[in-house]
Amino acid sequence: MSDTQIGWMGVTASLVLVAIAIGLSLWQQLHLTRSMLWSSARAAVQLLLVGFALRLVLDSKASVWWAWLWVVVMIIFAGFTIRSRAKEIPGIFLLGTISMLTVVIISLSVIFGFHIFPMQGRTIVPLAGMMIGNSMTSCVLVGRRIIGELSDKRDEVESRLALGLSWSDASRPYVRSALRTALVPQIESTKAVGLVFLPGAMTGLVLAGVDAVDAVTVQLAIMYLILGSVATSVTVMGLGLTRQMFSSDHRMKPIARASH
Amino acid sequence: MLAIMGTAGDRGDEGVLLQFSAVSFSTPSGIELLHGVDLCVDRGAVTVMAGPSGAGKSTLLRLGNRLEVPSEGVVRFKGADLTALDPQQVRRSVGMIFQRPIPFPGSVRSNLAVADGSAADSAFVAVLQRVGLHSSILNRVADDLSGGEAQRMCIARTLLTEPEVILMDEPTSSLDPENRIGIEDLARELAHEGIGVVWVSHDLSQVQRIADRIEVLIDGRNATPVESLEYLKQGTEGEQ
Questions:
Q1: CB pair distance less than 8 Å for A160 and B104
Q2: What is the spatial distance between Cα A170 and Cα B84, in angstroms, rounded to a whole number?
Q3: How far is A55 from chain B (nearest CA, A)?
Q4: Considering CB atoms only, which of B98, B114, B158 is closest to A155?
Q5: How many CA atoms lie within 13 A of B45 on its CB side?
Q6: Measured between alpha carbons, how far is B199 from B215 in angstroms, rounded to an integer?
Q7: pTM, two decimal places
Q8: Angle, CA A176 vertex, CA A173 and CA A177 arms, to 5°
Q9: Is the confidence metric ipTM above 0.95 for this complex?
């Protein structure tokens, strides 16, 4: 066993920290013991299943198409996850799925087109997963912001429409504000990387024994790709949702206000 | 001389800019707000829409500006069905002033540029003068204007689209008496220039001051002549 493989004993030992969390919950009467046990057990089952499935998909002898199939399933699950987080937004599943698909197509085209990473199962799945995972939260955020902005500023939007502006011109200032709000956290996170926290991919590589500077170059490429992915997904979701808020004859549809 | 309409749909088309014929409108949830309403808006006249709250007056104006589409009936602009015309062009020809002034973020100049981005400052100055505002307010933040100034700026903004009809939805309801009279005078001037003005009001003394024609709406329908007289009489007596 290499020093990066912790084995079952290591996993079992790490449960001591879960026991500490449960002890704190009991001491402070937080009534979170059952939730902690359930989430820990669920995480173990989910990750083990994923691990065994990934072992099959990422096997060097396995066809790369299994990895692409995995990505398709991830995109669909991401659509469902986005819908479950923002049920109040009409058509969010389709928009979310299209956003994720766009992100994957663009980001993986860049990655493999410029030979940043080799196109193999072991690169396709984790890279797509990182792009999708980071874009999902921003998609939900921009969806809620757009509904909020257009709902709060309905008078202004209709006043612009009443002057003969198209739906896209009438909504532009408010959509722009929503897009900025959704993108700022990712920009801030990109700024703080290395100073405030060490990102996951780099940490994983360092733990796996890779040279720190080599790990940084990989992490940098991933950070830039994530920033691009988030910007792409937010824009696709934002513009798609805005279009959906207006009829083809430039009238604003009634909006069910998002709950925050 | 003041005319109470009541049979608007039967009048001839000469001079009619905007015509509502048997117009009904229901919300998406199925609530009927207008039922078979007729109205004619003439060139160069102030047509006042009076009636109690919830009678459907604002909804009728939104149909005229094409912000809504009738469930039944037809709205025509110069004889053409609005739904067959380019909605953006209709909205520039049939302008709308809302109850509360709605300045956009930014300066007065940027507000006016929303209506006509290619216009020069001289055009902005001219339209500001037309609504009784001094050119010095061009650089002021629109949100800092007083209620009366903001409503005048909104009218100026609409005038930049060179409308033939202006729909005014209780435009003085949030203004003090001095500004109220000022906006009324402006509406009369616009009518004098040939624009068809539709003015929604609850204020019966105001109705009498500015109306060339009056149409009363009750419960989403045209009031009968008897109901119209009764409504206007009650209002007048209430003010005495």
A1: yes
A2: 22
A3: 53
A4: B98
A5: 18
A6: 10
A7: 0.83
A8: 90
A9: no
Helix (H) or strand (E) holding A7: helix A7-27
Query: 3-state class of B214 per DSSP?
Result: strand
> And the tokens for B200?
């929604």
Q: Measure the CA–CA gap between B157 and A160, rounded to whole angstroms.
A: 10
B69 in reach of chain A (CB within 8 A): yes
The closest CB to that of A164, out of B91, B98, B154, belongs to: B91
Residue contact B114–A165, C-beta within 8 A: yes
Q: Do A163 and B158 touch (CB under 8 A)?
A: yes
Single-letter code of the amino acid located at A31: H
* Angle between helical axes of A121-152 and A212-244 (0-180°, round to 10): 40
- Tell me the per-residue pLDDT of B72-126, one tens digit each, with 9 for 90 and over: 999 999 999 999 999 999 999 999 999 999 999 999 999 999 999 999 999 999 9
Cβ proximity of B202 and B53 under 8 Å: yes
DSSP code per residue over A217-243? HHHHHHHHHHHHHHHHHHHHHHHHHHH
